[in-house]
Design goal:
alpha+beta, 3-stranded antiparallel sheet, 5-stranded mixed sheet
């Protein structure tokens, strides 16, 4: 009977985690390494939903970084301390907007009217910041001479294609690590509530199993949150927090109760 639990695949774990909390009892019998592996795979999937899909769509849309540099971005040169571009430009890259206006020697976010996260450039400077509710907040400002001391143009930008893709990979890894940490923190917080519930109903269960239940229980809420981000927040984040909290608490409660219910057969995990 114990061997049947060893045959639970990663796909089985995901399927049970998001749809069958009554069978969490069978997942908590898995070795710690397999539960950690599940957490890593879920973090990979969450990162792909939130970051990977947008990155792939952007790269496909522009035809690759080299094509972006040579054909999508207006012809430009930076020399003699001045940036000259054939046309002004607004280019959305993920959540940020690259904004170039060479009619101004030194640009500021107060020159831009629409809300957003900006990388803005004038003839002589670059500004990083955000505009929220019409109020600009500048985080950093650089002279272009510091960034391009030897000049710059489209061809030179295209030569940075390998670095761009390395940057994408590094950002994926960093985002994945952040997702793992966020999921674990969420599960740790809920595990304290799970411990309180188990004590209240006099359920004899180890804290390790409670934490495992919480890791599985937050899987669906974390997925819903990532999909919502990718779709442009079609559901208000505040409303989704309420929905996800309800789902997590319900799944944890059912997962805990599964350790009291002897009527669920081991093959119920299939």
């Amino acid at each position: 009977m114990e061997d049947s639990y060893k045959k639970v695949s990663m796909v089985d774990q995901i399927a049970i985690a998001v749809s069958s909390p009554k069978n969490y009892k069978h997942l908590t019998k898995l070795k710690t390494g397999r539960i950690i592996g599940f957490l890593v795979i879920i973090s990979f999937l969450l990162t792909f939903i939130e970051f990977g899909i947008n990155a792939i769509v952007f790269i496909a849309k522009v035809g690759g970084f080299e094509n972006l540099a040579l054909n999508k971005i207006p012809a430009f040169t930076y020399e003699d301390g001045k940036l000259d571009m054939a046309d002004d430009m607004q280019l959305a890259v993920g959540d940020a907007i690259i904004y170039v206006d060479t009619t101004k020697d030194r640009i500021s976010l107060s020159d831009i009217k629409e809300d957003g996260m900006y990388i803005a450039m004038g003839k002589e400077n670059l500004v990083l910041g955000i505009i929220s509710n019409g109020k600009p907040t500048e985080y950093m400002s650089y002279g272009l001479s510091l960034l391009f001391p030897f000049g710059f143009n489209n061809e030179m930008l295209a030569g940075y294609a390998p670095l761009f893709y390395i940057y994408i990979i590094m950002m994926y890894i960093i985002t994945m690590i952040a997702k793992t940490a966020k999921t674990m923190i969420f599960a740790l917080f809920l595990s304290l509530l799970g411990r309180m519930v188990s004590n209240a109903v006099h359920l004899e269960i180890s804290y390790g199993k409670i934490l495992a239940i919480c890791i599985y229980a937050v899987t669906l809420p974390m997925m819903l949150a990532s999909v919502n981000v990718t779709l442009g927040y079609i559901i208000s984040p505040s409303i989704l927090i309420v929905i996800n909290s309800f789902i997590a608490f319900t799944f944890i409660n059912r997962g805990l109760m599964s350790h009291m219910d002897k009527s669920i057969p081991p093959n119920g995990a299939n």
